What we know:
Layout: H1 2-42, H2 47-69, H3 80-99, H4 116-138, H5 143-162, E1 173-174, E2 180-181, E3 184-185, H6 189-212, H7 214-231, H8 236-262, E4 264-265, H9 272-285, H10 292-308, H11 314-328, H12 332-347
Amino acid sequence: MSSTNATESNHSGPSRRWTAAKFALPLLVLIALGVLPQIASLVDDPFLVRVGIRIMILAIAASSLNFILGYGGMVSLGHAAFIGVAAYAVGILNWHLGNGEPLLSWPLVIEGSANIWIVAPVAIIASALAALIIGFVSLRTSGLHFIMITLAFDQMLYYFFVSLQKYGGDDGTQLIEPLRAGTTELTNRIFIYYIVFTTLLGVLFLIDRIVESNFGLVLQGCRQNERRLTAVGYRTYNYKLVAFVIAGSIAGVSGVLLATAQQFVSPSDLAWSRSGELVIMLAIGGVGTLFGPVLGALAYVLFEVVLESWTIHWQVIFGPILVLFVLGTKGGILGSLESFGWGLKGHD
Length: 348
């Protein structure tokens, strides 16, 4: 009996250390993000707050892509389309409010709005509808064809918004009226920061619960062996389409936050290069992990800020660094931590 207990103790000890090694860094990052405004106040550098907001918004967007790519095996190069659709929904409603011109006058009169409780649901629904349409078509293919179709849809939406000269064309449009929640204007940078921070925590919790559910297990099964699931009776297309719409909706949340934070929307918010940046963040942080997108967004933005202070051609330096990082690590930052954790277990 004591031998059994000893065996269980030996087994559980390294496992706890492995868990600590795997989650210590993400936890520290979340704590650091939580207190960043106070740090910025102490060092009298409000730019840190802007950087933190950008990191968290990109982390939300990357998490939405990770949901379909890391867990569902759907490699999309058009994911930025959902960010841009939501951002433009906010911007267009704001433009019509500021100019006193109805968005629609027939068959219903629809006015513009700057109320976040109105524009946010509208923007997220718009992203979900875009994801439903794009997913309905693109998910009938796989592999390279899926990648190219999502990219094509993204480019079509990009040029569609560029063509809207009424809303600034390729220059984008500034929000005329400040967004507000009830009677509170969303202009205080610290207030916006903690809205974004709370949203990030909520998105991570939501994705974790979905991934651990039966739906999430089927989605992961689609990534591993879709033919087997189809053979036993699962309608994998339906599961993947629902996941695609969920991911598009979460990306829409990041689009709303982006428009709120920068008070500006632009076609660059949905350019295909933004989708590529999200993929890079996943490669850095760890694909198919809950906190990988957060770590990837953090590393990417820090590299961007530091290297951009050296040269406007910072991508020339970042490219080789990324190649060396991907070649030198296994599964990004979290994958390397996991390997290190298993190493601790093996030594005991």
